[in-house]
Amino acid sequence: MFEAHSISNGFAEGADAENLSQIFADCFQASEQTVLIGGADEPFYQPGEKEELHRLYFREDFARSALHESAHWCIAGKARRALADFGYWYAADGRNAQQQYAFEQVEVKPQALEWLFCKAAGLAFQVSVDNLDGESTDDFPFKLAVWQQVQCYLQSGLPVRAAQFREALAQYFGGPLQLIAEDYPLAELCR
């Protein structure tokens, strides 16, 4: 289905927003009527009306933002995909400890998938607490939760759309096709 391009050190060169958007379109535009679009000031999901395509926007041309928003979309069920921004609550940077905890609960699964997507595309992954101006909290419990969710996905399998997208990324970029627990050590998140 996908052929790896310009392989160097095991991965294709140029894991950028443009080719990530194209891979997403190849996977989901026809079947799910959904496209991934860069250039946004803030990420946002806009369900299409009637015959319109659903649009999943990511920040500027940031590949990691593209993969993160793709992860949210891959998790969202049919009802959530009918709602603007999947109906999620979001408090901007500057959250207090209680708001940060609520944010992290919603982010565990998407960030776990994002790590899997990054590895498939040959991109570095780092857990994001996305709260630089907020109350300082210990990020280890969140990192542990993301790692545990990856281990759960490795044992029980990925959601269908997530598995399809991860495999397409791995095929295109020459990333690992097999999911192996040793490739996702907790220590990698705690650097």
UniProtKB/TrEMBL annotation:
One of its GO terms (molecular function) is translation elongation factor activity. Pfam families: EpmC. It comes from the Bacteria. The keyword Protein biosynthesis applies. InterPro entries: EpmC. Keywords: Elongation factor, Protein biosynthesis. This is Elongation factor P hydroxylase. The lineage of its organism: Bacteria, Pseudomonadati, Pseudomonadota, Gammaproteobacteria, Cellvibrionales.
